Amino acid sequence: MRTISRITTEYIPQEDRVRLSGQINDQSEAVCVLWLTQRLLRQLVPVIIKWLEPRVVETVSLKDETAGTEGVASTGRSRTAAAGAKRERTQQNDSSSRRQLSDQTESVEPVRGNQESETWLVYSLNLQQSSDGMRLVFRSQDSSTEVCMPLNEEHLERWMGILMDCFLRGSWPLDQWPDWMTANLPGRQARPLH
């Protein structure tokens, strides 16, 4: 099975779909262009969040304890609050990382398809979970065409942030997204915890 090694994910308003352009990890360096519908992504998001959330909360707890502050369990903070704190730190780190990356190198180009790129609508998706990440297998309608995309925990977190941005750009419902990811968005407030 062909494996995607690098991706660019973006919302395309004219299609009202998400386009995933992936560089195939082989000697040809071919690019495949996959189209993902809102319906498919709304089924995918909760599965990835369910896998990711305990790890995000655990990371926050360990960082809090290492820093000499009280951990998540001892302060009584909820998972949502702990994960929200992690998301805030991640957003701050991501923006400074992006600035540093753009300052240091301009060689990282987005993956772009062309007229010769294989292009198809993803009809089904298979998730293979492991302790350190997921392997997503994208399939065409007749299952004759498929590619896989392995993502470790860090890449999953980043990709979920990109997907949420696609949802926002498309004005798609955010009800599948947890409070710890949406609470800090402009104009949104976290649901009360009582």
Offer a quick outline of the entry:
With 194 residues, the chain is α/β, with parallel strands linked by helices. Helix content is 41%, strand content 25%.
Q: Count of helical segments?
A: 5
* CA gyration radius, whole angstroms: 18 Å
Low-pLDDT stretches: 69-83, 93-106, 189-194
General form: globular
Quote the average pLDDT.
Answer: 78
Tell me the total number of β-strands: 7
User: Pairing-aware structural class of the strands and helices?
Assistant: alpha/beta
Strand order of the largest sheet: 4-3-2-1-7-6-5
Task: Give an overview of the whole structure.
The protein is 41% helix and 25% strand. By secondary structure, it is α/β, with parallel strands linked by helices. The relative contact order is 0.20. The model is unreliable at 69-83, 93-106 and 189-194 (pLDDT under 50).
